[in-house]
């Protein structure tokens, strides 16, 4: 029987319960609180595997992209279950994956915002009214479905010190110069608990590869400015082949201060933003099975690595 529900919206409370059940069912999965949000919700960090290769998979950086949290949780469950049963995942011996890699998951970077969009925060509560007041200044953005930020009105994927000043200039010019449902960069890079903790974890892990899951568009972004990252193009092409997604270059207005951007700049290693699914955010949970099928190959290959150690080979 599956632990991870794939037919209901993923909330922060549900994620906590699922994480506890996963750790009880599979001793190889560990869970800890990476940090707490401004409103006290935990940002969880799950780990499985004991291999030398460290990989970091992150999701739900944006509130209305909560379906990506379910994606990472389901991957963790399927990988642990396959290993326990001596089986395979995406054609690869699960035990071999866990012996080769240590997989780190931060499935919900923005638990406050996710709970707003999924309805876990009820109208009339102080949290809801705080968000509603912020949204009132931006009537063109649907509320709460259009909400991407945390509940302080800061876009957590515009918080990283990789072109943050450029992002600030761009977003301020677009009118996002104060707390907003999306696109407000905050008062300084890494000024939010969630982004600060994720950057700290990344520095501690020093991962070989990073995935940042978003929705939507069925596209993979793998570059930041002119930085040369050995092996990145090989991974990008393979991820595109496995998923059927396109490879893309973000528009200039969206090219700075993201987690992927900072990872590439800071570590010079393959980092990817994967825009899963198709449609209008928040994507319906009915799309989950397709998203999972499309991305399972990416998740497995990211952990195992490509043949020939492409990180050290020429493009």
Question: Helix-strand pattern, N to C?
Answer: HEEEHEEHEHHHHEEHEHEH
What is the overall number of helices? 10
Largest sheet: 8 strands, mixed
Taken as a percent bin, the fraction of beta residues is 15-25%
For the record, give the distance between the C-alpha atoms at the N and C termini, rounded to a whole number.
44 Å
Mean pLDDT: 96
Spatial strand order of the main sheet: 1-2-6-3-7-10-8-9
Unreliable stretches covering 5 or more consecutive residues: 310-315
Structural class: alpha/beta
Spatial extent as radius of gyration: 18 Å
Number of strands: 10
Shape: globular
List the helices and strands and how they pair.
Layout: H1 12-25, E1 29-36, E2 42-48, E3 53-58, H2 67-84, E4 88-89, E5 92-93, H3 94-100, E6 101-106, H4 111-118, H5 126-135, H6 164-173, H7 193-205, E7 209-215, E8 219-221, H8 232-243, E9 246-248, H9 259-267, E10 271-276, H10 288-304
Parallel strand pairs: 3-6, 3-7, 7-10, 8-9
Antiparallel strand pairs: 1-2, 2-6, 4-5, 8-10
Helix pairs in contact: 1-2, 2-3, 2-10, 8-10
Summarize the structure.
With 315 residues, this protein is α/β, with parallel strands linked by helices.
Molecular structure report:
With 315 residues, the protein is an alpha/beta fold. It is built from ten helices and ten strands. The protein has an eight-stranded mixed beta sheet with strand order 1-2-6-3-7-10-8-9, sandwiched between helices. Strand 4 (88-89) and strand 5 form a beta hairpin. The longest helix has 18 residues, at 67-84.
């Amino acid at each position: 029987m599956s632990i991870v529900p794939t037919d209901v919206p993923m909330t922060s409370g549900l994620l906590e319960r699922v994480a506890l059940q996963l750790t009880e069912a599979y001793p190889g999965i560990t869970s800890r609180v990476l940090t707490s949000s401004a409103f006290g919700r935990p940002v969880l960090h799950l780990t499985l595997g004991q291999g030398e290769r460290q990989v970091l998979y992150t999701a739900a950086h944006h509130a209305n992209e909560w379906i990506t949290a379910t994606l990472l949780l389901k991957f963790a469950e399927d990988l642990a279950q396959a290993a326990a049963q001596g089986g395979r995942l995406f054609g690869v011996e699960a035990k071999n994956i866990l012996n080769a890699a240590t997989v780190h998951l931060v499935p919900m970077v923005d638990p406050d915002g996710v709970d707003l969009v999924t309805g876990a925060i009820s109208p009339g509560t102080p949290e809801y009214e705080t968000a509603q007041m912020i949204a009132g200044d931006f009537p063109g953005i649907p509320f709460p479905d259009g909400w991407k930020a945390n509940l302080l009105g800061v876009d957590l994927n515009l918080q990283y010190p990789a072109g943050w000043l450029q992002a600030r200039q761009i977003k301020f010019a677009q009118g996002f110069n104060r707390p907003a449902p999306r696109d407000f960069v905050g008062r300084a890079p890494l000024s939010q608990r969630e982004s600060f903790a994720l950057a700290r974890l990344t520095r501690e892990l020093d991962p070989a590869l990073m995935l940042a899951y978003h929705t939507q568009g069925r596209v993979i972004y793998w570059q930041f400015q002119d930085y040369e990252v050995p092996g990145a193009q090989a991974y990008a092409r393979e991820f595109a082949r496995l998923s059927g997604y396109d490879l893309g270059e973000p528009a200039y207005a969206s090219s700075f201060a993201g987690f992927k951007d900072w990872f590439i700049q800071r570590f010079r290693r393959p980092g990817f933003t994967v825009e899963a699914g198709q449609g209008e955010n928040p994507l319906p949970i009915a799309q989950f099975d397709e998203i999972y099928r499309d991305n399972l190959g990416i998740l497995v290959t990211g952990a195992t690595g490509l043949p020939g150690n492409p990180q050290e080979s020429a493009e």
